[in-house]
Amino acid sequence: MRAARTSKLATVTVPGPAGDLEGLLQEHEGETPQATPAPQVVAVVCHPHPLYGGTLHNKVVHRVASVMHQLGAAVLRFNFRGVGKSAGTHDRGEGELDDARAALAFIRARHPGARSWLGGFSFGSWVAARVAAQDDALECVTLIAPPIRTSSFAAMHQARVPKLVVQGTADTVCTPELLAAEFPRWAEPKRLVLVEGASHFFDKKLEPLADAVRTLLEPFATK
Length: 223
What we know:
Largest sheet: 8 strands, mixed
Number of strands: 8
Number of domains: 1
CATH class: Alpha Beta
Strand order of the largest sheet: 1-2-4-3-5-6-7-8
Mean pLDDT: 95
Structural class: alpha/beta
Helix content: 25-40%
Radius of gyration: 16 Å
CATH topology: Rossmann fold
Distance between the termini: 14 Å
Number of helices: 5
CATH architecture: 3-Layer(aba) Sandwich
């Protein structure tokens, strides 16, 4: 059983390719740079579509980050370019790749030697998937409601990174039927957990979402 530790949440500024990015960093007490003990895992979670109200404060992003933190990770949520206090303008998912890479670089530099995870919800999962396909240092990528209808996940067809996917069965935006047709094309290793009755935003289903994410990530947390 993991001993309880005090958690702290801090506002941080992440140097980004289009200017500074606004972030929230959740660490356990004592997990400052050069401190002991340092976290064994760091994680970054990407938010949903900026043009439809997506921010680092999204409830699904918050819940996924909370589970990662409970499993021992120091977790960074950040706003993509043009969102909140982040500099720049929306770049249709291309510049946002570099934003996610900058967030990973920031938390990896803060905690050198820690294993790293990446996650994302909806639009954020599309960004996370493409970053993960090119980042051999990632231990896994967690994709929540990947937008198969509107975005290509061809990067997952050959990527060797473990893919952990959570999908609501009542999602009408990223439907389970479309995911069911696409998921078999993704390279192993991969795991899919369906949350029964969950809509795209997991309304009234945040606890089952958290349980699904925990189930998928626990084998990596205990390494």
